Amino acid sequence: MLVIVMVLMIAATGFVNAQSKVAHINVQLLLSEMPEMKAAQAELKQLQETYRADLEGSMTELKNKLTQYQNEASSKTNEENEKRAIELQGYEKNIQEAETAAMQEMQKKQAELFAPISEKAKAAIEKVAAALGFDYVIDASQGGGLIVAQGRDLMPDVKQELGF
Predict the structure, then answer these.
(1) What one-character DSSP code corresponds to residue 144?
(2) What is the pLDDT of residue 146?
(3) Which residues are paired to 155 by β-bridges?
(4) Which is nearest to 36 in space by CA: 115, 117, 119, 121?
(5) d(CA 53, CA 55)
(6) What's the whole-model pTM score?
(7) What residue segments make up the domains of the chain, in order of their start?
(8) I need a labelling partner for 58 at 20 to 30 A (CA). Which of 16, 81, 91, 132 fits?
(9) Tens of pLDDT along 70-90?
(10) Vertex 122: Cα angle to 36 and 46 (nearest 5)
(11) Residue 96 confidence class, pLDDT cut points 50, 70, 90
(12) Topology classification of domain 18-162
């Protein structure tokens, strides 16, 4: 009986010593507050405005041609009107392709800008966690799968590490 109690005490002590330290941080909030992210978002917004202006200019030109062709349709032959309709369809297709290309470029630029920022945040989280002796850090962002967040929040320490 004494042997069983001793084994249980050793196992319980080992379990307590083997428990890992766990912390949490809201990664989305951290990223949104990083100065680099704010600059990247401003750059993306400017690029988006440029694409929007180009597309709106093309749409205005298309509308003007459509109005012109409709006004002149009665004075043109059927063959000329068909050619103009085909021309307008081609122009509309070009605008749609330009819009798709702009969206793809925006996504590519976003990935290009956000990747180094995410890596910097991850490195800072890893450095702070190691310095404070945490074995695990759970992402406390909404939808991150965290049910309880009563452990230590590393946000202030990571922000300090990043210098803001």
Answers:
(1) S
(2) 55
(3) none
(4) 117
(5) 5
(6) 0.69
(7) 18-162
(8) 81
(9) 999 899 999 999 999 999 999
(10) 25
(11) very high
(12) Protein Binding, DinI Protein; Chain A (3.30.910)
